[in-house]
Amino acid sequence: xxxxxxxxxxxxxxxxxxxxxxxxxxxxxxxxxxxxxxxxxxxxxxxxxxxxxxxxxxxxxxxxxxxxxxxxxxxxxxxxxxxxxxxxxxxxxxxxxxxxxxxxxxxxxxxxxxxxxxxxxxxxxxxxxxxxxxx
Length: 135
Known about the structure:
Layout: H1 45-67, H2 70-94, H3 100-127
Helix pairs in contact: 1-2, 1-3, 2-3
């Protein structure tokens, strides 16, 4: 006579041969308390936006001569890039460095743009009226 196939229990209750008499619950986890999952953002958007605003700022600086209108947009992108860069840098500390290099790149580009504005204001303030006669 042929050997009978071994019966497989599909109810989730362990068999007596296993020596485990506790009922198996696949949804209970391994212990009495399971820590809830915390959703972690997959990217640091503020850092990424700061970097792109830094690039946009320098594109505005470069194209100001031929196009003329980007000079009005550059101060807005500089300020927004600095704010978002600091927010992204602080968020990168909490997310174990995610987006840190983008935040630093955005901060460097935007602070350099701010330095150009300050330097331009100083030069225009000191030498702007030089050579003109006041009547």
